[in-house]
Request: fold
Amino acid sequence: PSPGVFVFALFTPEFCEALLRQIDAFEESDLPRRRPNTMNRYGLVVNELGLEHLMTALLVQVIAPFAANYFPEELFAKSLDHHHSFVVEYRSGSQGQAGLNMHHDAAEVTLNVSLGRAQGFSGSQLRFCG
Reply:
């Protein structure tokens, strides 16, 4: 990886599968939803799934201490207090959105987690530039 980019296992496969089941159930429901941003046609803000407390705990217990440890010279590292947590789905072919064009995240820290389905999943390439 590039400087400032870290790769590590964060969630168990069981947790990822449970999260995917929640996402699928929400997508199949008639509940209102908003997409996470203007770039993704297929995605959900996970707070709307009832996971805001989990994502806040992840920020407070994992992401903020990680940032403070690995980026101590950065002002943001000791003041992370907000998250915009969402999932997006990419599909090849005409049935979905195959990827995302180069863009800039307006965030102090970005956490990307691949939740690819266990069977038949390949891909999940991610490129950091800058």
Q: What stands out?
A: The chain has a mean pLDDT of 80. The chain is about 25% helix and 5% strand. The longest strand covers residues 43-45. Strands lie at 43-45, 86-88.
